[in-house]
Every structure is written in C-alpha cells, then in structure tokens.
Amino acid sequence: MKITPLHRNKLTFYLKEFYKHYPSEKYTIFHAVRGFKKRLKEERKDAWIGVAGRTGEGKSLLCLMFMTLFGRSCNLTKNVAYVPTGSQIMDMFDKLNFQCLLVDEAAREMRAVNWQSKQQQGVNVRAMTDRFKNNLVFLNMPNFSEFTKSMRVSNLEFRMIVLYRTNEYARIVIQRKSRNWRNPDPWGDEEANVRYIKTEKRHKELDNELILNIERSLPVTIMDFIVPNLENILPDITTEYERLKLESRKLANKEEEHTTKKNMHKEKYEDLLIKITKLLEYNSLGLGRVKVGKTEISKALGLGLSTYNKYLEMQPKIKGSEIRNKINETEKK
Fold first, then answer.
1. Rounded to two decimals, what is the model's pTM?
2. What ranges do the domains of the chain cover?
3. Is 151 left (phi over 0), alpha (psi -120 to 50) or beta?
4. For 72-127, what is each residue's pLDDT tens digit?
C-alpha cells in the first residue's frame, strides 16, 4: 500500500488542528521532520535513529506518521521491514535513496544478545560505511539498552523515546548523542539515572511532569513534542500496517521453527558421528575379538534397535567419483 499525498494532506490538516489545542507546546512533529530533512540535505548522509518505548506505546505508528510527513515516496512494503533478518534490512536499505526505512521489530536481529550474528554484523557495517544514501532509518526496540554497544556508541546518532502516553496524546523526546567521542556515556543515561533516583527520593513517585522535566534538563535532549494516535487519523494506513505485520510475524515464526528443526537434526547427526568415531578409534566394543550383537551396537550408538535395523537396511547416498572409485578398488581386492 502506497502512502499518497492525500494521506499526507489529511494528516497535516489534522495535526495543525490538534496543536491549536496545546498553544504552550514549544515544538511539534513538524519541527522534527523539517530538522531531519534539512540535515539529510545539507550534510548529505544518513541518519540512523533508535526508537525506544514500552510495547504498545505507539513507536511504529509514530514512525509511520513521521514517514508520511517526510513527503517522499513511501510504501508499506518497500519502506517497512516488519520482522526482518539482517540481510532483508540491508537489501531494503540499498534500494532507497533520500527516503525513510522503518525496521519495525529490530529486536529480532539487532539485540545485544545476538551480537555474534553474521547478519547483525552486516547491518552494523552497512550503518558505518554506507553513509551517503541520505536515508532516514528508524530501528524500533522496546529498550534502548538492548542495542549492541556498537550500535549505541557508533552507529546510532539520534534516538526517539515514547516517554509516556495519556488518553489524548503521546509525549516524544528526541535526543542526539554527545559529539565527545571519548565520552563513555554519550547518551547521558548515567546522569539521567542519578536525577531519577534523587527525584524519586524527594517525591516518592514519578509522574509524567517529573519525568519530562528530567529528560528536558539533559544536555543530549534536542526537543520534545506530543502526537495524537494515528489510528484516529489514517485508519486505512494503520489497518494495512497491522495486517502486514501479522503476516510477517507468522512467516518469521515458520522460518524460526524450520531453523530450529534443522539445527536439532544437525546436532543429532553430529552426536552420532562422535559416538561412531570414538567406537572405531578405541574399539570399545572389542570388534574382531568378540562377537557383538545388534543390541550392544545400537545401545552404544544411542539408537533403538528398530532404528538401528532401519539404518542397517538403508543404502548410503554416496557423492563424489573418488569415493566410488575407492569402493570399487576395495571390492576387486
């Protein structure tokens, strides 16, 4: 589904009317979109943004709103990676120029626990080296600390946080990483945590206003603004997005199930080879010296007797002319 100028005009009109009810707000989402668009044009390099917030707080719909206002060609299939692998993220990124890319469930590939993943390493390299496609990339993660250290310190220069949600709107904070490359805490998280602890001791409970004051006081904070729920403005966009996300999640679950079964069979195969190797090397069963029955052999290999008999009747799938030649030479002798 393509996001059209009609969608953009409708969203723009709704937001302008919405902000009229909150005249005390210094910034709006329009300021954020213009700021990032200007940066892409002037600095002519990509902007990778980590988007954090609790599950169900509206991170994805915020990004879709941002992408709609961005004003460039946008499609819910070409510009949104729903439950992607690292290779899918790279493929989609390569096809875009001066556009937006939403990696909706970055947790699948970009979490710190997956730091050894070759696909994740590929995305990290792409974020570091392919910097001049002028793309705006959103990586959604419930907790910002779940990103790898490489992503947090090197590749992600901005982050958007869905700070809290009320019945009328969600509060968004945009922060930029410290440019001091020696800083061990470039996002100011340790400083923020100290302020949160002090505030809790004084007030016992953190309300939305206290949380906002702390975030506004941090040197990394650029701006904060409020946004309404996109479902109330563009229900056709949000409905199609939810449908595509559900389909992608089902497909991802099937792929993971297939991979799990494949790995399980591989482990069983390797375990059997280990047992056979040790039996042959150390002749644990005394083959050639004493008569060993099927029961003893199947037990030593960790197989049931019926399984052992099944394998005994099967013919090996021989590959390679050299192996065949060796077998033929053995038979002639």
1. 0.71
2. 2-177+220-254, 265-332
3. alpha
4. 889 999 999 887 776 777 888 888 888 999 988 765 555 444 444 555 555 555 55
